[in-house]
Amino acid sequence: MAAGRELPMFLKAQHRGYEGFSEETEGNWNGPFYFIQGADPQLGLMKAWRAGDCDSGGDEWQEEIQLTEQTVQAINKLTVKPRFFVLCGDLVHGMPGTPWHEEQKRDLKEVLKCTDAKVPLVFVSGNHDIGNTPTADTILKYCQSWGDDYFSFWVGGVLFLVLNSQFFHDATSCPELKQTHDQWLNAQLAAAECRKSKHVIVFQHIPLFLQDPDEENGYFNLEKSLRRDLLQRFQKAGVNAVFSGHYHQNAGGRFNGLDMVVTSAIGCQLGQDKHGVRVVAVTEENIHHKYISLDELNDVTVDEVLSFPTEVNDPTPHPQ
Predict the structure, then answer these.
(1) Which member of 93, 160, 167, 293 lies 3.0 to 4.6 Å from 44 by CB, making a disulfide possible if both were Cys?
(2) Confidence (pLDDT) at 309
(3) Which residues contact 108 (CB under 8 A, 6 or more apart)?
(4) What does DSSP say about strands 276-282 and 287-293: parallel, antiparallel, or unpaired?
(5) Within 13 Å, how many C-alpha atoms sit on residue 117's CB side?
(6) pTM (whole model) above 0.85
(7) Band of residue 58 on the pLDDT scale cut at 50, 70, 90
(8) How far apart are the first and last CA of the chain?
(9) Nearest to residue 59, comparing CAs of 68, 42, 51, 47?
């Protein structure tokens, strides 16, 4: 790769859309399909967590490289390929401007560029990618590396919205960008009400909630009044499911008919889950999903999700 130039596979999200996944080409239902959702490869966190220094630690990330390589290799071996592979934020651990941020991005790309070309990569920004309090500069650098920080796309008659959830957390250093994001989201939700998509699915890094829509505020969810507002607006627009990461554990719950799915990490685990990804099967009537460990991600386990779906809008938390 020439110095200063990015591989096209990392920059397909442009102009608030995604190359090859437009409404014109993918707006019609063509039958069931599946995608794979991962979250938080977060190169550098595992050592930092063990050392108890998550703010300034993270100078080694070989473990996360190996786990991400295992993920890519498992996806490449699947006979029936997913329509896409989405990573829901915290691609690296080093915050923008810290010593290892750029190096971790470079090493992650070296692994991800080996993903089968038939499986497009969709990236979602996390707090470690653009900062806990993002700025215009950190967002610009993210977009130069990974494509747009928010956008919409279509696959098989299903509308997908990728949001920048840091705007919901702390946009004090970039209020104009937040306003533009919110205006775009308002337009997307209004249009979703009028469109004839089979489903509407949202990807964002920070979960709306972990288990209960009325749970107390915390680091791993959105503030309660904002959360309630988004849930109501999503429901009105016909959003079926929100997929997120950030928690480094599997969790989730329901708000009326909307499924909040929190997926554990490819990288550092903060609970009892194994390193893994979520296989999501989309049928005409439902969205089925199951978290599968990297050691068990293969044709057999994927086929089990596609043939005998589990976790169908389960109103209880997803503990596995």
Answers:
(1) 93
(2) 57
(3) 41, 43, 65, 68, 91, 92
(4) antiparallel
(5) 2
(6) yes
(7) confident
(8) 40
(9) 47
How far is residue 18's CA from residue 225's CA, in Å, rounded to a whole number?
31
Instruction: Give the number of other CB atoms < 10 A from CB of residue 189.
Output: 19
Per-residue pLDDT at 141: 97
Q: Tell me, what amino acid is at 69?
A: E
| Block residue for tokens 């008659």 | 157
